[in-house]
Write a structure and sequence with these properties.
324 residues, 36% helix, 11 helices, 26% strand, Rossmann fold, five-stranded mixed beta sheet, alpha+beta, single chain, Dna Ligase, domain 1
Length: 324
């Protein structure tokens, strides 16, 4: 756990409005550093807290969540999902980390995004199910257990599908499978679900060769369009995709907002594809979205908008506490 150096003294009004902000995640991450710098220049006190530092001290008189920077924070910003290295206690570590965030939020400290939103977004089945129930278009999807059911699901979706880890981000483990042998191979990989595991499989929708990322930060919206390079089905910038500023149609902006609200995310990256009639299809909602590529493509300062949102949330909670 490390803290940013104290900021230069400002006006009395600035001092009175100073917030304590805890950023949970990897301190050296590009986004964490940018957010800390943006908040620091505004006079706020920023502390970085690694996932491995989270702890709880229970006594007869109550509980103290550690490190103490969490309890002192006016607002907590989560940068990175609470993953853990492989090991026999991996699940326990992830669950405990989410439990600490949940206890923190339950005690009145605002967490961005809220623990329940993080849990919903990281679970692709739960997220897709809720988004579909909200009346939005999603790809035809099957979530099954075991290789036999997975092969049957692949057949039912037309034999050209995309498989994804149920839990995961940044496109890791995502693969297009165009044969039963390719699907069986994916299942058997060390990082795969295994022959008896849960398989999340969707129809392949790549005819348009482009998709959109709509980033929502509170009431603000930023968007870019990503086009796949020749010979590649993915639009990711890391594989040569081209990004450009995008002005989403009202129906696309509304769909992104509904998807984000359905999962409870205040800061969300919503990925969308065009249906044949131009309607938006929701691919995914990321509750810890990146925006480095979006800033480069649009020239807009997304980090500043995130800092604005954290300020607003922190001050609103502080004011509510004072008026109780």
């Amino acid at each position: 756990m490390t803290g940013m150096p104290p900021c230069p003294d400002g006006t009395a009004a600035a001092a009175a409005g100073r917030l304590a902000v805890a950023i949970v995640g990897r301190e050296t991450g590009w986004h964490a550093q940018r957010i800390a710098r943006a908040l620091g220049t505004r006079g706020h006190d920023v502390t970085h807290v690694g996932w491995e530092a989270l702890a709880s001290s229970l006594e007869p008189g109550g509980e103290t969540l550690l490190p103490r920077a969490l309890a002192r924070a006016d607002v907590v910003c989560v940068r990175g999902m609470p993953g853990a290295p492989p090991g026999p206690d991996r699940l326990e570590r992830v669950v405990f980390r989410m439990d600490v965030l949940g206890r923190l939020a339950g005690g009145g400290t605002p967490v961005v995004n809220a623990p329940r939103a993080l849990e919903a977004a990281i679970d692709k089945y739960l997220a897709s199910s809720r988004i579909a129930a909200a009346g939005l278009l999603v790809p035809r999807t099957r979530v099954v257990q075991g290789e036999t059911a997975a092969l049957a699901a692949w057949d039912s979706l037309g034999g050209d599908c995309v498989v994804k880890p149920l839990f995961g981000s940044q496109g890791k483990g995502v693969e297009r499978v165009q044969s039963r042998a390719a699907l069986a191979s994916w299942l058997g990989r060390p990082a795969g679900p295994g022959p008896e595991g849960v398989v999340y499989i969707q129809e392949f929708l790549g005819a348009a060769r482009w998709d959109a990322r709509i980033l929502l930060v509170g009431d603000r919206l930023f968007a870019m369009r990503r086009t796949a390079p020749a010979g590649e089905w993915r639009t990711n910038l890391a594989v040569g995709g081209r990004a450009e500023r995008f002005d989403p149609p009202p129906a696309w902006a509304a769909a992104a907002r509904i998807a984000a609200d359905t999962l409870g995310t205040a800061v969300a990256g919503v990925d969308l594809l065009p249906a044949p009639d131009g309607s938006p299809i929701i691919l995914e909602v990321n509750a810890v979205p990146g925006w480095r590529g979006l800033e480069a493509a649009t020239g807009l300062d997304v980090t500043d908008a995130v800092a604005d949102h954290l300020e607003e949330v922190g001050r609103r909670e502080r004011q509510a506490t004072r008026t109780v």
